[in-house]
Amino acid sequence: MKATCFCVVFLLPFFLRHGSAAVEGIRGYCGPVPATDAELIHVAMNLEFLEAEFFLNSALGRGLDSVAPYLALGGPPPAGGKRANLDPLVRQIIEEIGYEEVGHLRAIYTTVGGIQRPLIDISAHKFAMMVDEAIGHRLWPPFDPYLDTVNYLLASYLLPYVGLTGYVGIIPNLSNVTTKALVAGLLGVESGQDAVIRTLLYERALEKVAPYDITVAEFTNSLSILRNKLGMCGIKDEGIVVPPVLGAEQRIETNVLSADEMSLSYPRTPQEVLRVLYGSGDEHVPGGFFPNGANGEVARRFLEEKA
Question: What predicted TM-score, i.e. pTM, was given to this entire model?
Fold first, then answer.
């Protein structure tokens, strides 16, 4: 990638200023929540529903109900999904990821039982709202994840990484060898999906996202800073280009895999995951991709506490 050093020098004050602001804000509860293994995994199942619907609809123009409707347990169909304008390579990759998410749902359903698919909003408007918040002002024309390949990859950047950090976060609190094996298997594939998406974005890191005067790398940094802010538990998220001090062994600006100072995956608790997916920064306040909130005992308990 050409001119990487220029990009890092440019992004360093931006990342440090906005990144530190996100971490220094009000912190939420970041500890474990009382729950069974199944209840913890069901929090992640909400995200698996979201990913399945987003990736299948984008690649095929149809979602989970066209592949394995029984997994939805009668839950409402998603709102706003449609076939994205993708190049042939990315379309094939996204179709594969969509089918992998169906497999994840089936694995959870088979191992610990399922939950009803919640109402999911994957409309362009929802993604535009999150992007606007990340960038700090309203983009015009509004960001449309379905417009082209670059926009779609940026929208996809929002999803698998939250899933993998969520799985990393719950593993220490699982008590059963069967559920640990399940989550380890889910984590491996979610991590791979995230790595593929981040690699495709890194290839385009210095490209400007049309028609905005913002590079792909700047977009990813802004989205990661937003997720840190919403999660309210410190830095758990980094863009695809970082100052070397934040790179692997503090030696490199390339950040295809987001990891801590020892190159280990960051963990997120169930409440952090919900804060990010709701876009509210509060596990008690639904919104974002889940207008009525997520399903499962843990998610519903949080919603009831607010009421």
Answer: 0.92
